[in-house]
User: Which sequence fits this backbone?
């Protein structure tokens, strides 16, 4: 594997790819995590702009204002990371965060839930969902 990378680097392929990603990120401010995460618009509760599904995809409310799309996706990508790593999960009754159980009735929609605090900190948002 290392040898392959060496060969590729010699050919300038890896270098070019790194440069390409950097340019792509700078130009589009695009998050590469979106390449394997679907984002779709759905009918949702009036007060919910975005959600992460248990499969690690993102849904946006059909009513989401354009001005909020970027920040909501940024925030939800924090949850996508945590769902995919196994740090965050939920069922009908509970959230499970890093092995600890949080009752849904008590913790749903709270900005001080540890998984929300983390997503908010990473994305500069202030959402409770
Ligand atoms: Zn959230």
Assistant:
């Amino acid at each position: 594997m290392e040898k392959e990378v060496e060969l590729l680097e010699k050919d300038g392929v890896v270098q070019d790819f790194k440069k390409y990603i950097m340019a792509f990120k700078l130009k589009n401010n695009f998050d590469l995590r979106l390449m394997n995460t679907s984002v779709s618009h759905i009918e949702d509760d009036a007060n919910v702009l975005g959600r992460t599904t248990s499969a690690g995809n993102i849904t946006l409310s059909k009513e989401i204002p354009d001005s909020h799309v970027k920040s909501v996706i940024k925030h939800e990508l924090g949850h996508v990371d945590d769902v995919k790593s196994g740090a965050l999960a939920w069922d009908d009754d509970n959230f499970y965060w890093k092995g600890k159980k949080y009752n849904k009735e008590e913790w749903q929609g709270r900005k001080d839930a540890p998984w929300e605090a983390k997503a908010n900190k990473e994305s500069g948002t202030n959402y409770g969902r």
